[in-house]
Write a structure and sequence with these properties.
With about 210 residues, the protein is of the alpha/beta class. It contains three helices and 13 strands, in the order H-H-H-E-E-E-E-E-E-E-E-E-E-E-E-E.
């Protein structure tokens, strides 16, 4: 099978969530083995969560024994992080409405090509961190009237906010960073009147585990 990865030095390759998970597990093992104290562990843990490339991950375990089964991070670990999460069959609702109430979509759910979210005197939450996507580009159309809608995406997703606010706002405070290879593109559009739509960036829950 041919290698479709870009022809560039390994340290420049972007690390996936699975790569960071492996490093974190190795650091936890090192604490249990007495190789790292808690201060060193916390410093390396924070660095692992914020690492983007192998060049940033590799020094975190360089002075630790190689675990059984091979290196923590290397060419074989460069797995497409979005494989299997895009292009699946849509099976969920394409609409969420909150009228003096709330709605929530989180965990494993499928984001259709177009999703309509309406909040009138209410609130809604759309968490895309563990979601699957019907296609590479999806549109989330939001209507917030005296209400609010919060959209959470993981780092590496391309986000395009196009909504219009009249005495309201479409707010993207966080930067998802450079788009990861194969990541979906999320277009957020719609209208906010005396309400707001906020886009947040948070890491996937699997990367926020505590010791």
């Amino acid at each position: 099978m041919s290698d479709e990865r870009p022809q560039k030095p390994l340290p420049e390759l972007r690390a996936s969530d699975a790569d960071r998970d492996r490093v974190v597990e190795r650091l936890r093992d090192a604490v249990a083995e007495g190789r790292l104290d808690m201060e060193e562990f916390e410093e390396r843990l924070e660095a692992a969560y914020t690492s983007r490339t192998y060049a940033e991950l590799e020094p975190l375990t360089r002075d630790l024994p190689v675990p059984e089964g091979g290196p923590v991070a290397g060419p074989t670990a460069a797995v497409e992080p979005w494989a299997g999460r895009i292009g699946g069959a849509g099976g969920g609702s394409a609409t969420a409405v909150a009228v003096m109430s709330g709605f929530q979509r989180k965990g494993r759910w499928t984001v259709p090509a177009r999703f309509d979210a309406v909040a009138f005197w209410g609130g809604g939450e759309l968490d895309l961190r563990e979601a699957e996507f019907a296609q590479r580009e999806v549109v989330i159309n939001c209507v917030a009237v005296m209400g609010g809608i919060e959209i959470t995406v993981p780092p590496g997703v391309e986000v395009d906010v196009r909504g219009f606010g009249f005495m309201g706002a479409f707010d993207q405070r966080d930067n998802p960073g450079p788009a990861e290879r194969g990541a979906p593109r999320v277009v957020v559009t719609g209208f906010a009147f005396w309400g707001g739509v906020e886009v947040k960036v948070k890491r996937r829950k699997s990367l926020r585990k505590e010791l």
